[in-house]
Design brief:
alpha/beta; single chain; 6-stranded parallel sheet
Amino acid sequence: MNIMLFHSTYGLRPAVHAAAARLRGAGHEVHVPDLFDGHTFETVEEGMAFKDELGKDELLKRAVLAAAPYSERGLVYAGFSFGASTAQTLALGDEKARGLLLLHGTSDIAENAEVDELPVQLHVADPDPFETQDWLNSWYLQMQRTGADVEIYRYPGAGHLFTDPDLPDYDAASADLTWKVALGFLATL
């Protein structure tokens, strides 16, 4: 599978490279663009400030340019938190998308978004301060309306970015289960 993996607002950190290596080890081709031009951050607040400074349009442009050389072959879009929202936006706009793997995040869905049974898998903390229960319920219904085939996995007691071993949110058991389920999902695409 050809995977486009987007980083969180912390930037392109070791955990993203480790995730890409794990996916490559399972036989996937993985592309990991750096939307922040080498900037990484120690706190989510610093990363959010940088993201806001760059602006949504610029970041989307960078993501589209990163995916464009590979999209013709059919990409699985994936990402962590902010990167998941980026992946979702691109997957819903790419008629050749093969799948969508969301780790720790979702995004708004355009009213006219439509896909043909796009396989979507979301892994999220429960509760998650950035992905509230009400938001996830609404998101799920909207994704189904687009025609996506959605699975949601919730991890009670885990922190928001629970797959990153370098962050306080890390939860080893939840991270291991996430990767086991995600690799199984990717193997079906």
